[in-house]
Amino acid sequence: MKIFDRIYLVKNNKLPPDIKKIQKTLNFPEDQIIVAVRALFCCEYCGKNLLQSVDSYDSWQIDHIVPDGSRDPENLALSCKTCNFAKRHTTISELSNYSSRNEKIEQARQIVWERRTKKEINLMKVREFARLLLKLDYKST
Q1: 10 Å Cβ neighbour count for 15?
Q2: What's the CA gap between 125 and 67, in Å, rounded?
Q3: Cα radius of gyration rounded to whole Å, the chain
Q4: Is the residue at 81 inside a domain?
Q5: What are the pLDDT digits (tens) for 18-58?
Q6: For the chain, where are the E strands, in sequence order?
């Protein structure tokens, strides 16, 4: 069964009874199911499997691709917390020039990766600082 067939089942309340029962116990809203299924339960910006571990699952967030507040499923993306935080200062103008959802996701992905790369560079500096600080001998100060 294709992804869009599964989304059709969700939208039209045609899920099999056993899946509906689980959905009720999870209090899993329809719009989140649609976004998660479309993304195959992975962050749409970095590809992280959000069902891989408790930490991954706990970082699950629904992001507005274009930060205009629209809850239209075409403007929603499944995101890990790290990518959503990296994207949080993105302006509407940075993404509004793109017409299709795929183009907007691709541009958002590029913005996120640029910001994550800067964080990686900073993290390397912090690690070196911590390594040197922890290696410091009290007598030598």
Answers
A1: 15
A2: 31
A3: 20
A4: yes
A5: 888 888 888 778 888 889 999 999 999 999 999 999 999 99
A6: 60-64, 76-80
